[in-house]
Amino acid sequence: MDLKRLAVLSGGYIGPLSGNAVLAMIPVLKTDFGASAEEILVSITFFMLPFAFFNLFSGTVSDVYGRRRMLSIGFSIYVLGCILCVLSPSLTAFYLSRSVQGIGYAFVNPVLLAVLGDMTPPSERGRVMGYFGAFTTAGIATGPMIAGFLAPYDWRWMFVLVAVLAIGVNFWIRTACPASRPDTEALKHLASNVKVAVRSRGVGTLCLLGFLTFLCYMGALGFLSDHLSLPPQSLDEEAIGLLVGMSGVAGMFAAPLGGCMVDGRGREFTASIGFIVVGLSMAFLYASSDWLHFALSLLVLGTGTAFIWASLLTITVEIVPDLKGTVSSVFNSSRFFGYSLAPLVFAPIYSFDGFGPVLLAGLVLTFAALPVVHLLKNQLRSSQSDSTASS
Fold first, then answer.
1. DSSP annotation string for 345-390
2. Which of 244-248, 278-282, 345-349 has the weakest average pLDDT?
3. Most CB within 10 Å of its CB: which of 60, 66, 219, 233?
4. What is the distance between the alpha carbons of residues 211 and 369, in angstroms, rounded to a whole number?
5. C-alpha Rg value of the chain to the nearest Å
6. Would residue 34 be called left, alpha or beta, if left means φ above 0 and alpha means ψ between -120 and 50 degrees?
7. Confidence band (pLDDT; 50, 70, 90) for 380?
8. What 8-state DSSP symbol labels residue 201?
9. Helices (H) then strands (E): counts for the chain
């Protein structure tokens, strides 16, 4: 792999590295800010909501004003958010700082995908996008691990590290990012393209499945950290970080297998298997009583989620062939809204009766997704039949 692509792929590692780091910091942040686990987890929502919202527009904005400029602006805002996190004197200030991070990285992530598309011939795009997914998953996996290691010294060091890495990656990408011509017409078509994409058959169902996947994933993963810090587990930050990272590690290795399953057995089959595996992981987590059982359950969770994404992301670029970018933006916004809202949706359940009912709710939602997958399958077949008839 050449250094230019590696530079862009490294940018995909930076955002998840910081986004998930809070999961391993919950015990120490509870002490520093005098807050509950539920209140600390809301910081993920403050990061993810602006990230999900601005994701919808940043790709088109980069078409108008250029990739390099948008990446530099995005990374600068992201670094500013990291610095504000370090300086946060209160939980409210920490919330706002995380929002600044989310806004900044929203102007990085989709633009990185556009840059990869610009510099990669069609025959190699699938493989390169697979690498991008692996780098993103690596950030999800290692963020809690690194944060768990640094938290006993001072949790702020995690955000210092991320800021330094973001500055370095930004300069590296500037040397690799290909020049792109501004398209002043792109912005005019943004609203109409989004309307066409949303109204296309199956797109709403696809977005619902993405929303449910991240809602269940973060519902389980988000409250696991606090659960593990309490008796009878009473694990320290480093052990919690290692455990939480297990799902990401599994996803890194399971994603290629999921891709092969998509090609060999079909999109809907792979999605169904993924949701079943995620449901089983919820049951395994519910029954877990020691470190090893939790680790194995999280490996199962990461594997099932990787299968789901392999399927849904493939459908995303196929469902409306003429609007791949717009559908991708709509789908990513939908699934990241699920990620951001999970702490709010499951916090009342966790506060009332602990971690077990959170897992049971996730289990119900996961298996409720199976008929939605079947609905999507029928919608895709209907769309294909209409296309064949019209041609």
1. HHHHHHHHH-HHHHHHHHHHHHHHHHHHHHHHHHHHHHHHHHHHHH
2. 244-248
3. 219
4. 10
5. 20
6. left
7. confident
8. T
9. 16, 0
Q: What angle do CA 335, 338, 344 make, to 5 degrees?
A: 165
pLDDT band at 151 (very low <50, low <70, confident <90, very high): confident
Contacts of 138 (CB under 8 A, 6+ apart): 13, 16, 248, 252
So what's the pLDDT on residue 124? 64
Q: Please measure the distance between the N-terminal and C-terminal CA atoms of the chain and give it in whole angstroms.
A: 40
Amino acid at 299: L
| CA 194 to mean position of chain CA atoms | 21
Rounded CA separation 367/283 (Å): 12
In the structure, what pLDDT confidence band is assigned to residue 128 with cuts at 50, 70 and 90?
A: low
Burial of 119 (0-12, 13-18, 19+ CB in 10 A): middle
The full length of the chain comes to 391
Alpha-carbon torsion angle 163, 165, 171, 175, nearest 10: -150
Q: What domains can you pick out in the chain, each with its CATH number?
A: 1-177 (1.20.1250.20), 200-391 (1.20.1250.20)
Whether this prediction's pTM lies above 0.70 is answered by: yes
DSSP 178: P
Place of tokens 């939605």: 372
